[in-house]
């Protein structure tokens, strides 16, 4: 055996351990769920009948699942771009200041490192109607009418979304800042000497160079919002995703189907739909951004 | 060789001794309930007494949070790893029986005659399924009107005279409500919380008081989709929308609002006695639910104990003994003293009718109904959503009621098919 081969063998050996873990903990249960999604698997019955595509039909025919799916897309379409744009803007601003830089960084990262359950409950209290909620107390002091926030089917989804955006910004700002600092200063200086203004520097140099990081964050945030569960569960009454299912996400629908209705087969079918959705969105993002990332390369 | 033989003999002797010890060893059974501090403490004490009386039986007491209780049950019992005796909500019984979690109680120990002489009549309807008896409770609960005497005084009302009819209730609630400069409700005259006890008040009380019924006599067909049903729901919605005396989730929920003295009246169960007694600043009273058209009604429910499927032999014998013990007269007395829930035996309950708190809830038992839920959480959600539809989306009362009736009928049909 040559030395190179030996080295490769060692590498494989080390890779094998996480692979076993990955197969056992990820692929095992996943394939099991796929198989069981075609059965009437329920914790309330002792049966294991093959149903073919019945569960998938039932899930697609359930207006609540459709509503949850639309909500989920709503969360992702609004949430992910908002997080990316806001955190990029904040990171660029943070990069300019010199005084109190670490203080501001800490302020932005704090929501992200706070447990999301705690964040959700604090916001739930702040969103309360009079005489409880601090936001409505402020409105009241200014003579403005009170807002229903989480109690309104029109406002609840956006109220939860805003909290999740606020949380995720902390993470994205940190990554963007690290990315900005890897941009070689000589590139920017050279451009300046050639007469480029601030806008040109931003759009022709900084943003294109940040493209790989933006791609990474866009995919991660897309997935994050498509899987949204914890804030919805904790900010809606009795974790129902209400009022009137207006905040229910696909992940919460799956959870309720599996663990309050105990219809595990049906929940597995629903989770495959969510899996397909996340997969599709991620592939589209990869395709779209990959082109831009290579096209936008600075010569 | 001799040495080996000695060792062999010693081993045999040891084995025989061990076998004897095993046969004399106490039987261990496991009891499950959800975590509610006063009930956990009480059952611990009952187990101690039971073990003292039955030295050959040991009882393990295991609790889980309410939210994950049914998950635990669903995951453990089919796998044969669950308890021997289990505590469950009366509304869950059909589901538990259908899922084959619990077994029929032996006729020898729990005969029809015994059950009839021991329990309130409505208990019998709720612990039987398909003509077979599956569970026995210790305590029962009803609803009552609870009011804040201090807020009554502030509003110029006699703190010792709670409303007696629905019309009075509405008038009192209007007087007790307070608003800020923008017109926001800051003190609820009456808590309107359908996801608490509100859905039961509407289902088993208001529908009947307006001349209707929630279900037909079989309990399998929804019957509130009627003119009377519409009138009842309209009355309920008028309190929220027209009078604005309260709304769902005001101050997060009815219990929080009442505890914070931001809600002057609330409709809640007897298990709340302990909760409110613990607040020294709260000056409160409790009375029968208001009547309407001369009709009184109430909703009774309970947590009950059952023996899990697959328990047999010595464990079954021990489980039956334990079940008999925790449903005994002594246990009922202790339950009332420690938890506040009413004894499930009318004779024992009768002895406590001088206690003002107990009395109001007890009176309700005389005319209480007990809906047999097949999917308690699902059926509750139907009512919560119905009220939200009218309140938040402006759906007409009759339209929302018809839609809810159809949804609940589907739940019932899916269960009984």
Features:
heterodimer, A: 299 residues, MetI-like fold, 73% helix, B: alpha+beta, D-Maltodextrin-Binding Protein, domain 2, 2 domains, 3-stranded antiparallel β-sheet
Structural summary, described in words:
Chain A is an all-alpha fold and 299 residues long. Chain A has a single domain, classed as Orthogonal Bundle (MetI-like fold), CATH 1.10.3720.10. Chain A is 73% helix and 0% strand. Chain A has 13 helices and no strands. In chain A, helix 3 runs antiparallel to helix 10. The two termini of chain A are 44 Å apart. By secondary structure, chain B is α+β, with helices and mostly antiparallel strands. Chain B has two domains: 186 residues, D-Maltodextrin-Binding Protein, domain 2 (3-Layer(aba) Sandwich); 199 residues, D-Maltodextrin-Binding Protein, domain 2, CATH 3.40.190.10. Chain B is built from 18 helices and 15 strands. In chain B, the strands form five sheets. Chain B has a six-stranded mixed beta sheet, sandwiched between helices. A three-stranded antiparallel beta sheet of chain B has the order 10-7-11. In chain B, strands 4-5 form a two-stranded antiparallel ribbon. In chain B, strand 8 and strand 9 form a beta hairpin. The longest helix of chain B has 23 residues. Chain B starts with a helix and ends with a helix. Chains A and B meet through loops of A and helix 3 and helix 17 of B.
What is the overall number of helices of chain B? Answer: 18
Structural class of chain A: mainly alpha
Largest sheet of chain B: 6 strands, mixed
CATH C-level category of the largest domain in chain B: Alpha Beta
Poorly predicted ranges of chain B? none
Major β-sheet annotation of chain A: none
Tell me the CATH architecture of the largest domain in chain B.
3-Layer(aba) Sandwich
Q: Identify the quaternary structure here.
A: heterodimer
What is the CATH-assigned architecture of chain A? Orthogonal Bundle
N/C terminus separation of chain A: 44 Å
Mean pLDDT of chain A: 89
| Integer average pLDDT of chain B | 90
* CATH class category name of chain A: Mainly Alpha
Q: Extract low-pLDDT stretches of chain A.
A: none
Number of strands of chain A: 0
CATH homologous group name of the largest domain in chain B: Periplasmic binding protein-like II
Choose one word for the global shape of chain A. Answer: flat
Instruction: Give the overall shape of chain B.
Output: globular
Helix content of chain A: over 70%
The beta-strand count of chain B equals: 15
């Amino acid at each position: 055996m040559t030395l190179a081969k030996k080295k490769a063998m060692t590498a494989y050996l080390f890779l094998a351990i996480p692979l076993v873990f990955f197969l056992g903990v990820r692929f095992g249960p996943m394939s099991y769920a796929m198989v069981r999604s075609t059965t009437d698997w329920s914790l309330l019955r002792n049966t294991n009948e093959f149903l073919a595509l019945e569960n998938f039909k039932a899930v697609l025919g359930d207006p609540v699942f459709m509503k949850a799916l639309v909500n989920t897309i709503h969360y992702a379409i609004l949430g992910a771009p908002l997080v990316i744009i806001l955190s990029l803007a904040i990171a660029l601003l943070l990069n300019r200041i010199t005084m109190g830089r670490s203080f501001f960084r800490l302020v932005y990262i704090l929501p992200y490192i706070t447990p999301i359950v705690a964040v959700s409950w604090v916001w739930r209290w702040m969103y309360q109607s009079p005489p409880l909620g601090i936001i409505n107390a402020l409105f009241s002091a200014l003579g403005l009418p009170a807002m229903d926030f989480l109690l309104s089917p029109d406002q609840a989804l956006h109220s939860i979304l805003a909290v999740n955006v606020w949380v995720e910004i902390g993470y994205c700002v940190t990554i963007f800042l690290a990315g900005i600092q890897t941009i070689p200063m000589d590139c920017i200086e050279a451009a300046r000497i050639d007469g480029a203004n601030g806008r040109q520097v931003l759009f022709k140099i900084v943003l294109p160079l940040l493209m790989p990081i933006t791609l990474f964050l866009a995919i991660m945030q897309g997935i994050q919002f498509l899987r949204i569960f914890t804030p919805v569960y904790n900010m809606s009454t009795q974790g129902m995703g209400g009022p009137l299912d207006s905040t229910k996400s696909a992940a919460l629908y799956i959870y309720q189907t599996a663990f309050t209705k105990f219809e595990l087969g049906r929940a597995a079918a629903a989770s495959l739909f969510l899996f397909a959705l996340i997969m599709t969105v991620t592939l589209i993002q990869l395709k779209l951004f990959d082109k831009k990332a290579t096209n936008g390369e600075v010569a | 060789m001799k040495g080996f033989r000695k060792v062999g003999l010693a081993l045999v002797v040891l084995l025989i001794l061990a076998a004897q010890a095993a046969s004399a060893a106490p039987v261990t059974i496991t009891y499950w309930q959800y975590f509610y501090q006063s009930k956990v403490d009480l059952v611990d004490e009952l187990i101690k007494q039971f073990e003292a009386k039955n030295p050959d039986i040991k009882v393990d007491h295991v609790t889980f949070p309410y939210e994950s209780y049914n998950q635990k049950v669903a995951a453990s019992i089919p796998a044969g790893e669950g308890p021997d005796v289990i505590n469950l909500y009366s509304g869950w019984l059909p589901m538990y029986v259908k899922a084959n979690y619990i077994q029929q109680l032996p006729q020898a120990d729990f005969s029809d005659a015994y059950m009839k002489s021991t329990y309130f009549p409505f208990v019998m309807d709720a612990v039987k399924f398909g003509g077979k008896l599956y569970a026995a409770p210790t305590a029962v609960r009803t609803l009552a009107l609870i009011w804040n005497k201090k807020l009554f005084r502030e509003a110029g009302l006699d703190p010792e005279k709670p409303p007696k009819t629905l019309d009075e209730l509405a008038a009192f609630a209007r007087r007790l409500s307070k608003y800020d400069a923008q017109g926001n409700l800051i003190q609820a005259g009456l808590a309107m919380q359908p996801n608490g006890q509100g859905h039961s008040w509407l289902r088993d009380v208001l529908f009947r008081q307006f001349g209707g019924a929630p279900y037909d006599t079989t309990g399998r067909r929804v019957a509130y989709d009627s003119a009377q049903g519409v009138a009842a729901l309209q009355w309920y919605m008028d309190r929220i929308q027209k009078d604005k005396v309260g709304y769902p989730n005001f101050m997060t929920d009815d219990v929080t609002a009442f505890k914070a003295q931001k809600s002057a009246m609330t409709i809640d169960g007897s298990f709340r006695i302990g909760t409110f007694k613990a607040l020294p600043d709260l000056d409160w009273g409790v009375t029968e639910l208001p009547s309407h058209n001369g009709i009184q009604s109430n909703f009774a429910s309970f947590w009950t104990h059952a023996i899990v499927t697959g328990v047999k032999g010595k464990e079954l014998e021990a489980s039956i003994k334990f079940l008999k013990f925790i449903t005994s007269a002594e246990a009922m007395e202790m339950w009332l003293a420690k938890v506040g829930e009413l004894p499930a035996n009318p004779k024992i309950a009768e002895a406590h009718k001088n206690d003002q708190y107990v009395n109001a809830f007890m009176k309700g038992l005389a005319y209480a109904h007990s809906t047999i839920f097949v999917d308690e959480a699902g059926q509750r959600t139907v009512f919560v959503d119905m009220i939200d539809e009218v309140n938040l989306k402006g759906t007409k009362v009759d339209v929302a009621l018809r839609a809810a009736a159809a949804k609940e009928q589907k739940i019932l049909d899916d269960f009984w098919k």
